[in-house]
Amino acid sequence: MATNYDYEEAPANYDETHRQDLGYDPNFVPDSVKSFVGHLYRHIREKNVYEIHQMYEISFQTLSDRLFKDTPWPSVDAVAHYVDNDQVFCLLYREMWFRHLYARLSPTLKQRIDSWDNYCSLFQVVLHRVVNMQLPNQWLWDMVDEFVYQFQSFCQYRAKMKNKSEQEIALLRQYDQAWNVYGVLNYLQAFVEKSNIMQILEQEKEGLEQFTATDGYDYSGGSNVLKVLGYFSMVGLLRVHCLLGDYQTGLKCLLPIDISQQGVYTSVIGSHITTIYHYGFANLMLRRYVEAIREFNKILLYIYKTKQFHQKSPQYEQILKKNEQMYALLAICLSLCPQVKLVEETVNSQLREKYGEKMARMQRYDDEAFAIYDELFSYACPKFITPSAPSFEEPLVNYNQDAYRLQLKLFLYEVKQQQLLSGVRTFLKVYSTISLGKLANYMEVDEPTLRTILLTYKHKTHAVDSDGKIISNADVDFYIDDMIHVVESKPVKRYGDYFLRQVVKLEGVINDMDRIKLE
Amino acid sequence: MGRETPKQQQQQQQQVSYTVEQLVAVNPYNPDILPDLENYVNEQVSSQTYSLDANLCLLRLYQFEPERMSTQIVARILVKALMAMPAPDFSLCLFLIPERLQMEEQFKTLIVLSHYLETGRFRQFWDEAAKSRHIVEAVPGFEQAIQTYAIHVLSLTYQKIPRPVLAEAINIEGLSLDKFLEHQAANSGWILEKGHGRGQLIILPRNEFNHPELKKSAADSVPLEHITRIFPILG
């Protein structure tokens, strides 16, 4: 059951001496690295965002592949010499250093703690000092994304107490502030507040601010770092709340970002996908299936059209993984809430290919169906965490699966409550009117039971949206006077939205054309 | 210091709850507000108000520091959430409550009650609620809230409903039901068809869910807010 879920991390029980055996000398700086840090440092000082981006995305990857396939980069102390010992650059370098370590190797507990310290120092600088840098959105997104990822990873690691060495336990006790859930949440919250990003987005709607139009970059000599980190932190908060199982608050944190429009969140594909994945998942758990289906459909179509452009990027694997997970979530949503007109042709055919058979089995609601719901949920869900500190009392246990098991159990409980709806739907599709007695007969239940089933159908297909209004998700609906009268829902064509989008698009094209100076 | 008048007390209470909502909005990830949030739960119970955000905030803090959790407060939060149906608040709260706590007797009962309400089994619900008076009577307004939910679901489903079905759903019978129906007819647009006792039919108010022809074609309506976005372009 949990095989897909188990966190794939090699046991991190080697220490400093073992690493040195691999021939890694933290103080050795190859010439290409000297050149790399030197140039990167200069570009950051000169605010050459494009060059920074190239070096960050491409050069760093190339050097990692060539020289540091399974060792860390040179230590920050060794490279500091080549960058004037600049404090901020060193913090940025260390952030990349740890990210590389997490991606290629397995961090030890001490390294996890050191990474936390580095984030604290880096974030303190951004929050409390005037920072005069412009960094590419990709980098700023990666910082927030990695921060949340390392937090999740730490919680998973910490929850496996069973085989911890005495040394590790001592360290955990000593550094109980490292990756503390309060700390993580408060940093993200601090970014949102200090950057004033919510007000900026509000004022942008009234034309008083420029943010989305410039992709978050500051063209008046200032810095984009705090603002954009504040922006991405809203997505970070959504993610953390999903990991905790608090979907309502997660969605609230994302509210200032209008996901029906392009925005800074779409400027980086990783951010776009993470936002929609968590948005969709949260809506699924809130039983707003139609909303989830709509968003999954849009993003899956987008990925289908654009993934070829990201084949060389270091995020490619992650993009593909999230793509597959969202297809699984879409399969779940459509099995619980069949909709005919919400899914695009291309997405639909991909969905049929991957999950057509499983969806048919899920809608039968027998024991096998529950096993498939279990399987898909476990494959596609976020890696839930237990945020509280561990108990150090004997016997030491592994409790890293507890959070996941609870969410899965509650999800399957909901699925079970909807078990009888599928049967009702089948009959409603066939009849335009039918008496309660007759339907009860066909469904082999007595009339009072049928009434409860019909009430359940109505309740489960009429969700409460974020404003407290009731919206119908039912593709087939009914009402009862003396008989049951079936109502087929009409497809909705949204011309208004289409025209609005085209107006904005055309304006964008005209603006672009105006900007081209003919020489 | 004399005794405060009820009005003064109410004003003070309003001041306290305003502050708690502010705390939840501005500084939610803060272990120090835990006592305030607990007091706020008790206040919601006694003054028949409700705040999902504040209660979720408290459940999160309990998650972060399980040794500070109060099962009594959690139970009260769950009862309040049940009263918020059809909103899915009860599930949202369960997502944040550890599994082993959910296995305790009073929580198992609450989960069963929720299950009955989610699946329209009102008779079983009222039977079980009667057995668990100590849990549900601790929260004023519980009965009315569930009756409101029952009527909501019935209004989604029925244009006309037989009296016994209604009676079972809202757990009112006989003369009390007669009075209740008269009140609804006078104030909420219910129509009582001729017929007595079990044969009586009640016509529920028309809405878009039990009268599909009333469904506004929201298809092509564009919210004004969306249009305002292109005002700069329209010039």
From TrEMBL, chain A:
This is Eukaryotic translation initiation factor 3 subunit L. It comes from the Eukaryota. Residues 295-494 form the PCI domain. GO terms for cellular component: eukaryotic 43S preinitiation complex; eukaryotic 48S preinitiation complex; eukaryotic translation initiation factor 3 complex. Component of the eukaryotic translation initiation factor 3 (eIF-3) complex. Its main location: cytoplasm. It is found in: Cytoplasm. Keywords: Cytoplasm, Initiation factor, Protein biosynthesis. Belongs to the eIF-3 subunit L family. Component of the eukaryotic translation initiation factor 3 (eIF-3) complex, which is involved in protein synthesis of a specialized repertoire of mRNAs and, together with other initiation factors, stimulates binding of mRNA and methionyl-tRNAi to the 40S ribosome. The eIF-3 complex specifically targets and initiates translation of a subset of mRNAs involved in cell proliferation. InterPro entries: eIF3l (IPR019382), PCI_dom (IPR000717). The keyword Transport does not apply. One of its GO terms (biological process) is formation of cytoplasmic translation initiation complex. One of its GO terms (molecular function) is translation initiation factor activity. The lineage of its organism: Eukaryota, Viridiplantae, Streptophyta, Embryophyta, Tracheophyta.
Automatic annotation (TrEMBL), chain B:
It is found in: Cytoplasm. Its main location: cytoplasm. Keywords: Cytoplasm, Initiation factor, Protein biosynthesis. Coiled coil: none annotated. GO terms for biological process: formation of cytoplasmic translation initiation complex; regulation of translational initiation. Belongs to the eIF-3 subunit K family. Component of the eukaryotic translation initiation factor 3 (eIF-3) complex, which is involved in protein synthesis of a specialized repertoire of mRNAs and, together with other initiation factors, stimulates binding of mRNA and methionyl-tRNAi to the 40S ribosome. The eIF-3 complex specifically targets and initiates translation of a subset of mRNAs involved in cell proliferation. This is Eukaryotic translation initiation factor 3 subunit K. It comes from Theobroma cacao. The lineage of its organism: Eukaryota, Viridiplantae, Streptophyta, Embryophyta, Tracheophyta. The gene is LOC18588218.
